[in-house]
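Trying the structure run again after the queue cleared.
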Amino acid sequence: MPWLILALMGAGTFIYGLATHATLLCLLVKPLPVLALLGWLHDAPPTDYRRWISLGLIFSVVGDVLLAWPGDLFIFGLGAFLFAHLAYLKAYLSDCRRLALLPLVLALGVGAILLSILISHGLGDLLIPVVVYALVISAMLWRALARLGSDVSKRSAVLAAAGAASFVFSDTLIGINRFVVAFDAAPYWLITTYWLGQWGITASAFASQQVLKMQNKR
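Done. Tokens:
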């Protein structure tokens, strides 16, 4: 409960900062929801899955700070979240390695559509970093979806897949808002779907197959 209160307080204050254009306030409180998730995650049994999710959250906190920092640190924030997605990808691979062709096609399709939209509006020097990021986040989505219908805990698979999809949607909004067309509601939608995505990914660690096996041995 304390972690939930901290997350809600941070989220509410950040939304208020967005509405009032309080840049410093946003910078100070933006990391709080993900830091709260990181604290909550340590209540879960210590599995490989949890460790990689923890690392992903740490990189996400760094990315949150870099993207909120005054000045254009977008490329550095992109790099931090790239490593976050790689950590989540490793977590998903730790308990499920089946090929899952349909999720692969779906994830590649989502990535291809997003890239085509962004490239058509010009990315300039960011072309290669954005392409690499899109490939990694597509791989992360693929492996999250691949856990559905496997021998992984159904609850963990659903939470991780929903979290990954929400995260991808948030990143899509960032790309559209930055490179295609900016719209007033974008900051609110992208941060909300980002937090929901992080929550789903974090919550999946409490019901992963590794956790269930540990509990059954007790």
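The mean pLDDT is 91. Worth checking whether this holds up in the mutant runs.
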